[in-house]
Amino acid sequence: MGVYYGPAKTAISYFAGLGHPCPQYSNPCDFFMKLLRTESVEDPSLKTSAASTAEQFIQFWTTHGSAVQVTSGRQCKGPSVRPAKPAPFGVQLVALIRRTLVSVFRQPMLTRVRLFQTLFLGLLLGAIYFDLGNDQQSIQMRQGLIFFTLVNQSFTPLLGVLHVFPTVSRIVMREHNSGLYGIPAYFLATLVGLLPNQIIFPILFTTIVYWMAGLAAAATKYLIYTAFILLISNSAQSFGLWVSASVPNIGAALALGPLAMVLSLVFGGFVTNRNSVQEWLKWATYASFVYWPFEACIKNEFEGRTFTCDVSTTLQGSCFRTGDQVIESMGFREASLWVNALVSFAFTCGALLLTFLTLMYKAHRHR
């Protein structure tokens, strides 16, 4: 049921006439939403009062709403605000993308903080692992650097999107049920709004760390390394979006998101060697979205590389003279990097598909 359908410029005076003036310096939209919202009121007495107020609005509008002029000068014939015909998908998508980008631009501090975090951690890691040599100690340093880089570029995107759907789910479902737009347009617009940060910051971080640490000095290897950083970053974000869409509130998202990330890291190939994992748990290694990019980055870095073997720097009594020996010792397979790339991409697509289906299910349930 509707409570008002008319010119925006007269909405404030309309509700003021009903005994609810908008406070000075308040956003009218926020005021109206707070005035009409009853779902989030926890106190039973306040919830009853809010529901009673909303019912009064509905009754008044049903009785007297036809007296309110719409912007075109026509009379409002009833309380329904659902469009007779939904806008085309392209119009919905463009409008939602514009709204999403406006929301991002209104919070420049978040972008600045992300930029500072990227530069600070990139320079810090570059300084810690600066100019790795080819001795035995550099093997462990390279493995640690690659793994930590993947961890950093997984946690940040995953945790950064856990709030995306719980904070706006009620608004989105209300607007969807009103016929303003469909879930596919909303979902695609959300992805477009997240895309710039998921490209710019991982590339900036990788570029700083890669060349300061002195990893494989070849343009092709740098591009491959960067590509897998982008893949794991987007895979982690996709899983974060799935968690965000699946839970009812941010608290649940913050509980499940890190758990999924930790489990993926445990079976990611660095903390546990795949050859040492129990047979009945080896499937978890392949189900880890960290494992495939980590394996690819290790192979990309160590293939064709040679190391010096000095007794004073030998690791655990063993001496690796070639990068292939290091790869074999970590239990990684002899497979093309394209396999790793396709599996990582499949993880991203699968998580996004599950996110979309979850949103569609919720929209169907809230009709």
Concise description?
The protein has helices spanning 11-17, 28-36, 44-64, 89-105, 108-128, 136-160, 169-177, 183-213, 219-246, 250-266, 282-286, 291-302, 323-329, 337-365.
Helix content: 55-70%
**Secondary-structure content class:** mainly alpha
Number of strands: 0
Shape: elongated
Distance between the termini: 14 Å
Count of alpha and pi helical runs: 14
Radius of gyration: 27 Å
Question: Oligomeric state of the chains?
Answer: single chain
Task: Let me know the largest β-sheet.
Answer: none
One letter per element, helices H and strands E, the order comes to HHHHHHHHHHHHHH
Low-confidence stretches: 69-81
Tell me the fraction of residues in β-strands, as a range.
under 5%
**What's the overall average pLDDT, rounded?**
83
